[in-house]
Every structure is written in structure tokens, then in C-alpha cells.
User: Fold this.
Amino acid sequence: MKMYHLDLSKKDIKNAKIALLPGDPGRVPKIAYLLDKDAKEIAYKREYRTYLAKVQNENILVVSTGIGGASCSICVDELAQLGVKNFIRVGTSGAIQSFLKVGDVVITSGAVRLDGASEHYAPLEYPAVAHYKILSALQEAAEKLKLRYYVGITASCATFYPGQERYDNYSKYVIKKFQGTKKEWEKLNVLNYEMESATLFTVCSVFGLFGGCVTGIVGAEDRKIRKDALKKGEENAIWTAKEAVKILLERKILL
Ligand code: URA
Assistant:
């Protein structure tokens, strides 16, 4: 039976146990071919594009989650129903801390649950945390690649504009609830903003599965995202995820 949104069946995914999860469908072939030059597209429905690749004789999925918690939850839930047990989000994020520069890698240890979707899986008191085995593989990978990286907390938001306190939205207004929040997160040592890690971590923990998240900073200071910055941030996160998969497979650390 095919999953309704992902348009994938158990047969299609060939017992793959690990999925790399970019947000953007355009990033899926890029990542898949980097893992395996013979990778193949096996489904593409709505925002969910899937490639199947082979690494160290193991089948690996690369699946786009779309943007935000709602679409990410569908992706993770349906992949889990098909038997996937290990999930690594690989994406981009914006700096909260001023020491973060474009291209820096952030490995999220825990997420502030501003995503909305995760509350449909567990109450807000439940933590959104990465699985420590995926986290340490990502850290080892970033070390090995000699990238500038940070491990810490990410604010994971339901929206790109108001939730991340961006005033360059249509109305130029951010509701009171979010006014001053960027400064507050900065004071609380939150590193960066993105939109899927809280959902991914919560759903994975609730299901007893492994989740991790690596993002590259694409917007610092003014948080405007420029083309060259996007490429740099994207690439560093992808290289880290690729190296982490190698480590996890070699050491047979995965579920
Ligand atoms: N993704 C986000 O959610 N925020 C940013 O600033 C950059 C990428």
C-alpha cells in the first residue's frame, strides 16, 4: 500500500532504515547524487520528493519535508509507518547569536517548540531533543571536515516572518507575542532559527526512533538570505550529514 502523501510503499523503499530530510525538494537530487551517483527518484508528490541511494550497501532515502512542522510531521509519520527508524534533517537556518556567520554549521541538541505541530504528538512539557547517537555522529563529522560548528538549542518556528520576529513582512508588523523574542532567545543562549527540528525531534522521541538535525547558517546579522550565503550554508550542512551517515553506518550505530 502506498502512503497517501509520500506516494511510497514498503516495496519502493527497499527496507531503507535511514532518511535524510532536507526541506526543499530541489535539494533532494543534489544530496542523493552526492551519496550515490546512481541514486534514483522513486516518488514526487506535492512537496515530498524521494530519492533512493545506496551507501556502504545500505539503502538510504532522501526525502523533502516541505517547509514547517505540519508537512514535516506527515513526512516523518509516513516514513515511520514504512519502517524507517533514523532521521537526519539537513537544512538551513538563520542566526540568532551574533557570533554565528554565514556557512557555520549548527547541530541542534534541542529545539524550542514554537512549531505548533509537535503539540499534536506530545504536550509542550515534553522535550524536543536530538538522539544523542545521531548528535555525536554529526559532531564528529563536522570535526572531521574541519568546519566551524556549534552544538546547541534552536528556536523552531511555525512561521518564517512573525515567529522569527522579521519586520520585513507585508504588514511590517509583528504581533505583541513575538515582539522582543529574538533578543530574548539570544539572552537564553538559543543559537538559531529554523522550522522543522522541534517537530522532527518530538515525533521521533514519541515513536522511539532516532532523530538529528544539522543546518547551515544562511542569514546572519540582518538575516537576509543571499544566493552565495544559501549555497555555502546548504553545502556545509550537506557535507556534515553525508559524513555522519558514513560514521553511523560504519559503526552500525543506527536503529
Ligand atoms: N530558515 C529559517 O527558518 N530561518 C532563516 O532565517 C533561514 C532559514
